[in-house]
Amino acid sequence: MYADLIIADPPYEQTSLSWDRWPAGWLTAAASVANAMWCFLPLRQFAMPPYRGQEFAAAGWRLSQDLEPAADTAEDHWTWEKHNGSGFSTDRLRRVHETVTHWYRGRWSAVHHQVPTVPGQIRPSATIAHRSQPTHTGRIRSAGYTYGPTRLARSVVRVRSAHGTAIHPTQKPVELLDLLIRYGCPPGGVVLDPFSGSGSTAIAARAAGCRAILIEADEAHCTRSAHWLATT
Ligand SMILES: C[S@@+](CC[C@H](N)C(=O)[O-])C[C@H]1O[C@@H](n2cnc3c(N)ncnc32)[C@H](O)[C@@H]1O
């Protein structure tokens, strides 16, 4: 494998813009360079024609998980709320979130995944002991049970959008990419972004101690990315 993780934010073909075309065969090409991938793609792309999920499966990708937004402000949630939203209909709710799907190939146990944890809740056993045990758990310990010092981070995160500072019209927040990279790429590993836009993935990869390979069709975006990387 040439890369440890792919971060892909492909054109969805949602608009008539010339760059907004789904590149045929890119999922098969991606499968030849890495066995793990985060991909930004709306649920609609899977549930409605052209049913992109079938293309993932045909290229050997298996869905591991998805990150979804929620109306929750807890620090340990992974939500990304867009500043203005991107809904194209006036009779639907304003869409201010993006779904990020995680894919892998081969054995899950062979795929790097460093699950982040957050501070847990410790309850003295004595407190628990005063309560009656819920019938569905049975008797776990003689004096009740305690939570550990950490627990898994939840699948929703709230990060600031790149609104106001973005150098690309669909730029993803570096803070969100940082989380995706730290989860899916080993320290010092290589992240490949085949639709790199602003180069945000490289900024996040560098912060996470990883290397990055960027591919971008638009030369002007490449020039702006290079400048951002050089000055950040
Ligand atoms: C959704 S944007 C990516 C934005 C990026 N994630 C960021 O944070 O800035 C998709 C990018 O893919 C580029 N693109 C479109 N078709 C491409 C292709 N066939 N190969 C490489 N890049 C392509 C577009 O020019 C556009 O910049």
From TrEMBL:
**What keywords appear on the UniProt entry?**
Methyltransferase, S-adenosyl-L-methionine, Transferase
Q: Which residues form the DNA methylase N-4/N-6 domain?
A: 4-223
PROSITE patterns hit by this protein: N6_MTASE
GO terms of biological process kind: methylation
Domain of life from the UniProt record: Bacteria
One Pfam assignment? N6_N4_Mtase
GO function terms (MF aspect)? DNA binding; N-methyltransferase activity
- Record carries keyword Nucleus: no
Q: Where is the signal peptide?
A: none
Which family is this sequence assigned to? Belongs to the N(4)/N(6)-methyltransferase family.
What this protein is called in its record is DNA methylase N-4/N-6 domain-containing protein
Native species = Paractinoplanes rishiriensis
